[in-house]
Amino acid sequence: MTARLFFFRTGEADGDASMPGILGSKGANLAQLARMGIPVPSGFTVPTLFAKEFQENGQKLSPKFCELVLDGITRLEAATQKTFGSVSNPLLVSVRSGAPVSMPGMMETVLNLGINDEVVKSLEAEGGERFAFDTYRRFLEMYLQAVCGMPLLVVEQPMSTVGQELSLSDDSSFDAPALRRVVELLKALHREKMGSDVPQNPHEQLWKTIEAVFKSWNSSRARKYRSIHKISDDLGTAINVCEMVYGNRNNRSGAGVCFTRDPSTGAKANVGEYLMCAQGEDVVAGVRTPKPLTELANELPEVLTELEGLCGVLERHYRDIQDIEFTIDDGKLWLLQVRHGKRSSQAAFQIAVDLVEEGVLTREEAIFRVEPQDFERLLLPGLDPRAHKQMVSRGLPASPGAASGKIVFSAADAEQQALRGEDVILVREETSPDDIAGIHAARGLLTTRGGMTSHGAIVARQMGKCCVVGCGSLQIIHGKRVLKAGTVEILEHEWITIDGGTGDVLLGKVATREAAISPGVATFLDWASSFHKAKVRANADTALEAAAARKMGAKGIGLCRTERIFFEPECLSNVWSALLATDSRERLEAFARLRKVQRKEFAEILEAMQGCEVAIRLFDHPLIEFLPRKEQEFVTAQEHLAIPGDILKFRMRNLMQSNPALGHRGCRLGVAYPEIYEMQIHALVEATMDLVSRGIDVRPQIMLPFVSAVGELIWARRRFGVLLDKLIVQEEEKLGGKVRCPWIPFGVMIETPRAALIADKLAMHADFFCLGSGDLTQLTFGLSRDDSAPFLRVYKQEGILDNDPMTSFDNEGVGYLMRHACELGRRAKPEIQIGVCLEESPEAASWLYDGSVGIDYVSCSSFRVPIAMLIAARSALTS
Amino acid sequence: MTARLFFFRTGEADGDASMPGILGSKGANLAQLARMGIPVPSGFTVPTLFAKEFQENGQKLSPKFCELVLDGITRLEAATQKTFGSVSNPLLVSVRSGAPVSMPGMMETVLNLGINDEVVKSLEAEGGERFAFDTYRRFLEMYLQAVCGMPLLVVEQPMSTVGQELSLSDDSSFDAPALRRVVELLKALHREKMGSDVPQNPHEQLWKTIEAVFKSWNSSRARKYRSIHKISDDLGTAINVCEMVYGNRNNRSGAGVCFTRDPSTGAKANVGEYLMCAQGEDVVAGVRTPKPLTELANELPEVLTELEGLCGVLERHYRDIQDIEFTIDDGKLWLLQVRHGKRSSQAAFQIAVDLVEEGVLTREEAIFRVEPQDFERLLLPGLDPRAHKQMVSRGLPASPGAASGKIVFSAADAEQQALRGEDVILVREETSPDDIAGIHAARGLLTTRGGMTSHGAIVARQMGKCCVVGCGSLQIIHGKRVLKAGTVEILEHEWITIDGGTGDVLLGKVATREAAISPGVATFLDWASSFHKAKVRANADTALEAAAARKMGAKGIGLCRTERIFFEPECLSNVWSALLATDSRERLEAFARLRKVQRKEFAEILEAMQGCEVAIRLFDHPLIEFLPRKEQEFVTAQEHLAIPGDILKFRMRNLMQSNPALGHRGCRLGVAYPEIYEMQIHALVEATMDLVSRGIDVRPQIMLPFVSAVGELIWARRRFGVLLDKLIVQEEEKLGGKVRCPWIPFGVMIETPRAALIADKLAMHADFFCLGSGDLTQLTFGLSRDDSAPFLRVYKQEGILDNDPMTSFDNEGVGYLMRHACELGRRAKPEIQIGVCLEESPEAASWLYDGSVGIDYVSCSSFRVPIAMLIAARSALTS
Known about the structure:
Two copies of one chain form a homodimer.
Chain A: E1 6-9, E2 12-13, H1 20-35, E3 43-46, H2 49-56, H3 63-80, E4 83-84, E5 90-91, E6 93-98, E7 109-113, H4 119-127, H5 129-146, H6 152-155, H7 157-166, H8 176-194, H9 202-217, H10 220-228, E8 238-243, E9 254-259, E10 271-276, H11 280-285, E11 291-292, H12 296-299, H13 301-318, E12 322-329, E13 332-340, H14 345-357, H15 363-367, H16 372-378, E14 382-383, E15 391-394, E16 396-399, E17 402-408, H17 411-419, E18 424-428, H18 436-441, E19 444-447, H19 455-463, E20 466-469, E21 474-477, E22 482-485, E23 488-491, E24 495-499, E25 504-507, E26 512-513, H20 519-531, E27 535-539, H21 543-551, E28 556-560, H22 564-567, H23 569-580, H24 584-608, E29 613-617, H25 631-641, H26 645-655, H27 667-672, H28 674-692, E30 699-704, H29 710-734, E31 746-750, H30 753-757, H31 759-763, E32 768-772, H32 773-781, H33 789-797, H34 814-828, E33 833-837, E34 857-861, H35 865-878
Parallel strand pairs in A: 4-5, 17-18, 18-19, 19-20, 27-28, 27-34, 28-29, 29-30, 30-31, 31-32, 32-33, 33-34
Antiparallel strand pairs in A: 1-2, 1-3, 3-8, 6-7, 6-8, 9-10, 9-12, 10-11, 12-13, 14-26, 15-25, 16-20, 17-24, 21-22, 22-23, 24-25
Helix pairs in contact in A: 4-5, 5-8, 7-8, 14-16, 14-20, 16-35, 20-35, 21-24, 23-24, 24-28, 28-29
């Protein structure tokens, strides 16, 4: 059925838009336009199956195929009233490939085919000498490339030789004699390289070109492209043969492209550019600077009006922004190609929202017109693409955005300089929790070690701070206060710029552009959140972060880490007392002082998220992180605690761990040092009552971290659950019993593989689950986020792993454990609330949103909240 | 049906041995003996269900119960021709508890019940005054304890008071007047403490005693005992009432215990002891020193003959060594209790083997007569139980056995002292791979930190070296060269003794006894290995260890670690060159030198295991372990490598890891530094060909460690599999093609959770699986063996975890992942070989052996091989 030819001319066509598999996308598209009465050059499409035949036939054209093509030419001659190869009324054609899936630039095209030394004379008679020889040289240039396999640089040589000889600025200044010379040079080139003349026989030109198109399907670059884009080699390409229309005929001719809306802003205006006296390739190739479409009003106003009319028709038909390629032949408009327009992220939102408001799209459809990465691009400042850049190194793009600043090598310097109003970039080998204030003060963070989820990377993303990590080619020479990049030395306080979206490290201050959230995006987010079932929460540790998360649309906090205040300088001595003091009274008092700070923190974050649930993770980090690290701190601590140095060292050494990620942390600390959790729970109840008594609706939740045995949860509930109840009663009584504390659920984090495997047992003792991807991924892979950069680099090079598992959710391993945990948990306790806490990639797994395992919420970094909302809406709409 | 009374007398019984649930074990046992015609005192058992009734009835005896007991008494009177409470022909009885599960010493017993001031006169007439009052005082002593709740110390007071007054050495020297006085004092004691006289009415004595027995079921110590031994509180106790027979009647009377075989050695001889003129309690309580049973031949030869005859009958009936309690009443033998005899580990093997050879047991049955811990006890030297001991601390029992030596605080000292022939105990905070030679040289290892699977513990077990770890109460004061235990200071070179079976640390040199493997054990092991399907292999790294493993019965090596040679002093500089040299020629040469050493190692271990498979794990450890650690080493390395110090430091810092267990290790090193694996594979092929060309049958296997993504395995097979083939061809050609290299399978270790979850995909590229419990447990729990000691201590105290997951296999979490991996692997590739590598606890999971998931072999430390073989045989026989 498909081993036949598909003819089309304006108003009629054998094929239509539904047949890209048979006709290729270009052929199907042209057929559709023709059917709609759009002015397109007449032509025919030979279906894709012949490409396969060609390959199986030892790369030879079959008689059946040739017969079909000749039949097509005959029909084309009839339709155009011209004759292929005629020297009096010649039909020239374009021959283009047309795969079912677009493979831009991969395959061959020859225009103006059918011209020769005789035909050119007929063209000369029809449109003048310049037009005729311009057309001839265009044919030759393409033929030499496509059929003879010469590189562009070689076939361009005749034009530039003649241009230089005659000092011609661009192709439009070539007169007929110049073009004649170019044609002679091109013909000589063929003789030189191929040892023969360019075929004068139009049919020979045709067969040779078609063979070249078919062969180009199997070229190594095309095969590579298909392998990368996962396109089957079996699809094959169609062949489209169309009558030529000539944008290069005269000054009432030209070629251009036109978008039905502004692809950069989404504004509702036809936007495009064109060149007079040119064929389409000239516009794309940039041989001359094209004019904006609006200027066509001065040159050919009736053509512009017709084009604008067609824009409306096409957009209504295709229900999306269209990218149109057109040619004007002596004042007559032809459309050569129409397709969905690529657009900027900002435009994507604007167009989706406008099309809904124009009644073209439903809101549901609009949700699928924007891609997750559009949010990513939209919400961040980036480097000005036009700015001059001098790259010194490239690291891992850990937290997007771009920032410039003077480099400093310590957190303290960063704070100091920032206080003076300086923009600084903090540069460190790697960061520790001590550096948090410095990271906060800096415009961006650059580390020479660590991976995408190293401490610095996580903190920076959490703060929405631009960050590049693992820049192994850089070396900090602390003694010289210099950052060394190969032979380049950048002194402290010199400017650099980092791009957290690409990982680039650039010398000096590079201009950035700020992005704004348009009203379109806001509207879009509103719609998205009205569709999805799984709520989206954010990970946030402070009131500031919570407020930012809320602005991004977060419906709660899924992970509030509580260690931060322990690093605050004013808390540090209390932390030491609490953990190391020999005097138990002193320890108690230290805990009381810490409780005060913690209470304030909790109150602030709960208030910022009023009306929403805030899941507070009890203390998780190994204690050693909070103890004196530097000699000076150690001396201070020793004096503060009045403990002999060797005893203090002995105690501290007992807290050292060979693998802290697997060590004495999480609920294991809660068991060994219950005072810490008791302090935190007490502070939480106080903070809650503070707010409730002021009429504020707060919804705290308590999470027990890093559980691996049901005994841990049972123990913790018995110890801390009872305490919680007691404290609530006590605080309520303090307020005379007039204010009721809300219920504070007690949940468990599932972040060890074993917790996932015993989730049914955990469910019996937990009010909710929080599945944490960070530790679970580390443990499932046996991989440390801080140590993985060196070998992951090699893994990517060698194709062993495509992505860093710490940044791209591992659905196969980690996802299996999470789904398993959900199933076990739901079976044991159907009503249990289940949240999934992802740092990155909330878009990675559809089961998070599609209701298949019943996730109540997904939590991710603030910055990713809109993406998660989009994915959630899409999943809800497709499931 | 069971709410009735069960009567028994020699030759007939209502119950039998199958009814311990109804009658208690004692009642069922007595009924069985009676049925068999064994001479037992007549009596009856009131079934256990009345105990429950008693509790539910407000601790009151019901009329129905009393009626039954009275009916029992009547039947007993008829059987014995005596009358309860009669002053002319009195029946005295014993009243004993009898739970379905034995609870030794937990519950009350009263003997000689039914005596009073009148009845005693009748006994006096029957057997003399001394007999009568000895019997009376025995009743009173027991009654005061059981019914009045007086402590033993108080009720013994009258005997000791009178004994002191009259200077009597033991109870046998008390004459009748003395015993009369004791009886008076005991009666006075009752009056004093209870405010009333001892009941004279035998029935009142009976009811009070029964109430006391029932109440003792609910005493706090009995409840605690049941809770510890997981015995249900609902079982309840039966009541056994028997006619008294009197071992204290005269010099032709006595009491004793007898084993049908020697419970210590297993030798085939009746072994026991007895006392003349005594009741059974005297033998156990040790009031006088009993005589060996053999002496009975001089006193009552016909009784000894009868007893020996009964021993044979009972052993044949019960098909096991029996522990018999007997009484002789005026020359007549009565058996009071018969049960399976407890025996030493050595005896367990001997008896099992002998019983098979005597045709009493089948070999299959014998397998169940020995417990895994019997092997443990048998194969190790232990402390002499009779030696004087002064304990200074207790740590974790990491590697069993006992050792004494002078303490040293460094591996170097240990080596030096050992070279001088000194026995030393190496005492360290914790150990590192540097210490291996020192551990090897020492008699034992003691660490103050680290858990059961810390580095030191593993190395020590591997070497079969006694080891105590995590002895937190000890502190090494390096400056003073002193080990501090509280206030005790032990100087360097002072003697200590450690017991790796208990964790005890003792002052000075405590005598140890060496254990020997008896021929019985060897025979037993032969049988065991004939039954089981899953082979048992050992983990061994050297030829020496392999030879030891073979002696233990190992059928192959399941895990041969290959890092050891990299620590050898003569290799170290080559390791530095291989990893750090800038000159690539120098690196290649260093690898060539390492290959020579590795080849020798491989050849030795393969030869030691000829005919058996040896699974060689490619290099796994983080590289930093092999680089200079101390300043001196660093200087040496710097000179050796001729690299500037700061560059060397920079490179080394790049190899540092924050969590080495999750870091750049295992196959990740193979990808980043393929030269290491290439060197090892080359060495292995060379070693194999060396041996094969000498006609030795060797079967090496290669294992890729720490895989978490299928890409790693594919990459490694492509790179190293191809190399392997090439090297084999090359080496075969070197030998003129006359010698064929055996097939060397390439397998994958499944030791990350993710590897277990994608085992189906891994199976497609692996010849075998090796499931490794060590890393898998660490990752499943998120727990580091080196960091867990501090909180696991608390976990045990608080009952959160019963065991250290690193030493007791976690079947619930780790086992789930392993079974999942086996199922996925078998489904994808049914013929794949699957081994499980456990460091400890090969006995923990039955699925390893029962064929349910098809494990081909289990590998464990040499020391555990016999245990694994036993478990494997048992599983095979029961599945």
